[in-house]
């Protein structure tokens, strides 16, 4: 993926903008909500259990991914621990969302995101010297974790950090990576003697993921004021 927590008792749950990681969507309003969201459950707008389970899975799994990523960035060691953890996460979440599409607002978007991401990270597996590219891309999962944590723990501090990291990582850093990966493709072209090398797909995939981030951002900005909070 990106959006928000539950409403107070006996009021409709606010809608979410699905985020790039497959985090949960809230229950649907009884009137006028976007198609594809889950129906509001009994009990004053509480999130369905499948959504709650998915949130807690992501809180734990993404915390581990972030820890292994930061360790790799700081030390340059144990890339495969980070890599395997990331691939297992994408596969596990892909299966869960495929089996329980009610757990997210836009399951097809999330499934497509996970497939692209899983294919994308095959590159550093076969070309380990590009491990830093995967690591930089996965920094966005800090924002994903803050998304889920702020609505689970209901902390204003986490909410501020979430919005700040959204702009920095999704709207500024990801577009920069398109340029960075384009330069890496040019370097690989000089080394290999052909532009048709595997690194060619990196600026393309990065552009697709960046476009998805801007789609989610615009979805947030264009929502009615009462639904703008993620």
From TrEMBL:
Principal cellular location given in the protein's record: membrane
InterPro entries: TLC-dom
Alphabetic keyword roster: Membrane, Transmembrane, Transmembrane helix
Region of interest called Disordered, as start-end residue ranges on this chain: 20-42
Domain of life per record: Eukaryota
Sequence ranges assigned to domain TLC in this UniProt record: 51-220
GO-annotated cellular components: membrane
Membrane protein topology class: Multi-pass membrane protein
Membrane-crossing segments per the record: 56-74, 80-99, 106-123, 160-179, 199-222
Compartment(s) of residence: Membrane
Protein name as annotated: TLC domain-containing protein
